[in-house]
């Protein structure tokens, strides 16, 4: 796994998303239904989101409740996925971990988008020295993978969810900046932008009315893909002890603890591992599917 | 027994029949043309013959070539025929060559695949082949990468690879469409010469009737994946029997550029109403695919007509073919203006060669396009400066570009490119000024500068005597209201995420035009002959012609005085092009527009413009009244340009070798992507 | 240039932010005078710019400074750590390529058949499993259950077979996942080539599909894949940090995380800068290679 959040195809794919040429082409809905990635991805993603929401109000057990009488219990009717070394219910911990992971992921992706997208638009619109400066800055930040940022932040502040979110968000900013810039440059070079300028439409209005709506699918796809990277990064960083400290329930932490007892109960490793993989797979497929749906030219090649 | 015999070729993709059961035969040494507009399935047919269809397409039917069925034999056996017995030339010479391999190696490969030759021999032979396709410095080209060559050179290289093993059949898919007229002329003559010298059979695929008629003996016309007419070239040109072919012939003839006939500027052109349904949609149409656009259609046409011989050597797929003597193109060319006619003749009255007014409204028209014949031709044909007001002018314009190689994938840079090199231009009120030039002439750069979208490196641009170059956007607002633009690519110039009505209303908002915008949009839709409910649609739901109408409506929205049209009809199919030109002609008269019409197509310029400026490598080489410039060109470049235009029914290379050579002959255009 | 900027950022962020190293080193019970004495000794009383100049000057002349904690020269500590991390990354890259190229090519060439789709699905799952999770699973299966290979620790290179044996599992964990990511790009690149006009030309010349792909496709596939590979190499370095923790290998990652825990600022600074430098250098090298592979952009520079 790489914490380096790169989807290079999205970065270098400067072509703006546009609809196909053929009159009466299938609708977005139609393409969605015919993209296996999109269907499977959205089902998994939806399930993950539902679990996260449910876990806020209800989990089978208190994820933090220790029961030394029932440690390392195997899967049973009471504890569907068994219990851990303190007798805590694994399913409950996984569920509440979903909530934490998703929250951290969404916040960091949105945070990065909030900085990266305007920066990318600026770089595309301005060109010249200011634009180059933004680009160089993005490159610089790009040289620091999320892990390094997290390390630096943890050195200063100690590990916490905030550390993870900050590190991941910072690492994502240049990705957004680049994707936005290349997408915007593509749109800006099109005749309809020239036509709009010839009609006296102002630059900001062109960005708002023409550029943003046309790169929105690109950005939404990117956000979905980055969400999966964020989930990965979150798990890795908490595993390393740079994220939320024990006894909170997070997937990375569960893995770290489970690894210590894998001689006793190997299943404890499997549950969080499968959960992480499923969640990442879901968002990844959804992202790929969205790209298929939004950009039919890429479809099926 | 012909060399190539295709029977019942069907090419389908996900259930849609893109090529719907066509028969085709090419005899040894025979030159056959395949004509059709975009989406007619003509290129797929060629790929089907080669069995090189894109992934996802499949074909059925038999393809007998030299006693073997290409569809039945193994891929290995096919491979050994390809390039050796049957070769192919593709449309896009840039993408057809491997960008990462030197040209010499690619040509040598054509040889080494099929026979054992040493490297040195292969290289020698490659150099000979390059000389054969008239490349001046074969040694240098051998070492070059494709991107270092000009378009014409690349196409010659592709041709060299194709003829490397002396194939008996050559398939050429739009081999000159991506090239400039003068380059096209030279490549066509080369192709013609090679085919004759090698006694190859040729299947030439083109959208351009004139190109095909210059080289081929027989021609097949395709429409919606079907062959609708098949006959000798002269037959088809003189007596087209299928209504679609007749329309094509008439339109091509009237836009054919140089002709001896007097020009009737702005007169309505013959058109075929409507647009061709997409290939996929066509396969769902029952009966004759041309029915929706056909003036001769009867209930009988709900049944699909088969391709049948009506006279010896002339096959037509139509229930009501035109009589043999109807609408020969030469008659059209020489008959009076009022005699111009829509060719969709009615079945009941087949007699007269030239019918007056048989207009058939297409489905996108509120009324026939040119319902007021001659009513809008009154234009001040001013060729001198005095009298009329100068509305837009520029002086000594220079524009330097830094070559953006990676994006253009084009020519090698040599420092800065001079896109414009001291251009002076005056547009008078009421002018319809044509700016003619090939790629690299700087004509599009000029358009952008005139529109205030780009700044010149030096020189002045004045609108109504006020300088506009370098003015801030705010200062340009007054000009923006009066000067509007129509671009080439009708899809690219419309925002795909906006509805048509919002697109048309955009300049109204942006320029703060007062009044009822909805009302105005409705008016504009009517003016460009689009139905009201088009307003609710998105650009991708429209045909190319409809999109261009939307672009024109948007340009007209703020009631401009001046319209700049940059290759506004170049991306359209011939039959649609005529419709849009008629619309232009009508609007010019109706709104008293001053127009700057930029085009590489002299026929179009000749039809619309009263004055013409010829641009070559950023310089004005000739200017004057259209008729004068086009009939008595003074500069050698203009002479060469005019001579290079393919003519209907005129053999390639006929009687014009001297003039063409007089042109500053070079395939090498100064820079890619500037034109 | 970028590297210099990176060094300033690393240093300033680490030095300015809260947490006095001397206090951490001496523990909470330390007397203020002891803290001050240590601060003096470590040179932490000097102005920040002076500390920075010392540090950079040291790096340039090859002295990485001395660890606050162990008092050892950092260069030697890093050196022995690199003996582990270097081979690990190299092996990981090898495994990655062995996975990526066949997987990507196969799933592209067979993209319309069930076997190709299956390869794609496998690929997606590979991306979704984080390398450290795969590492833990490998430990459980291969180490704990099957007792085939060592699951942790490192014996040093004096015993080459032993050293290699202990690197096998980490390298697989690292490489398989990176390989899956790169495999997607290989697939896209191959699909692009398969639908290209020049491949059609090659076949029109008489090359069989397989030979056409080999002769005209490979280099054209290599160009985009190479760019990704460079970025993924950076990902491997980062991944190695985590994997070392999973397998308790005494590499750079372990050193880094220990130093974070101990607030050994200088070590953290050096390692972070080193990784950032590796990322930048790799990107630069890829850029150069890219230009030499593609004659179209070779002239641009
Ligand atoms: S007359 Fe009938 S069959 Fe002939 S082209 Fe027209 S619609 Fe088709």
Task: Tell me the CATH topology of chain A.
Answer: MetI-like fold
Please estimate the helix content of chain B: 25-40%
Strand content of chain A: under 5%
Measured on Cα atoms, how large is the radius of gyration of chain A?
22 Å
How many strand elements of chain B?
Answer: 22
Weakly predicted, low-confidence segments of chain A? 1-25
The total domain count of chain A is 1
Q: What's the total helix number of chain A?
A: 11
Structural class of the helices, strands and pairings of chain A? Answer: mainly alpha
Q: Report on the biggest sheet of chain A.
A: none
Quaternary arrangement of the chains shown? Answer: heterotrimer
Structural category of chain B is: alpha/beta
Largest sheet features of chain B: 8 strands, mixed
Radius of gyration of chain B: 25 Å
* Small-molecule binders: iron/sulfur cluster
Instruction: Count structural domains of chain B.
Output: 3
Which two chains share the most extensive interface? A-C, 51 and 62 residues
What form of chain A results from the Cα inertia axes?
A: elongated
CATH architecture of the largest domain in chain B: 3-Layer(aba) Sandwich
Query: Which percent range describes the beta-strand content of chain B?
Result: 15-25%
Structural commentary:
The complex is a heterotrimer of chains A (301), B (675) and C (301). Chain A has eleven helices and no strands. Chain A has one domain (34-56, 82-300): MetI-like fold, CATH 1.10.3720.10. Residues 1-25 of chain A have low confidence and may be disordered. By secondary structure, chain A is mainly alpha-helical. By secondary structure, chain B is α/β, with parallel strands linked by helices. Chain B has an eight-stranded mixed β-sheet, sandwiched between helices. In chain B, β1 and β2 form a beta hairpin. In chain B, α3 packs parallel to α6 and α4 packs across α6 (151-163). Chain C has helices spanning 2-16, 21-26, 32-42, 48-60, 74-109, 114-128, 131-145, 160-194, 197-205, 209-246, 252-262, 265-293, 295-298. Chains A and C meet through α1, α5, α6, α9 and α10 of A and α1, α6, α7, α8 and α10 of C. Bound molecules: iron/sulfur cluster. Residues 243, 288, 290-291, 294, 296-297, 301, 305, 318-320 of chain B line the site of iron/sulfur cluster (SF4). Iron/sulfur cluster (SF4) is lined by residues 243, 288, 290-291, 294, 296-297, 301, 305, 318-320 of chain B.
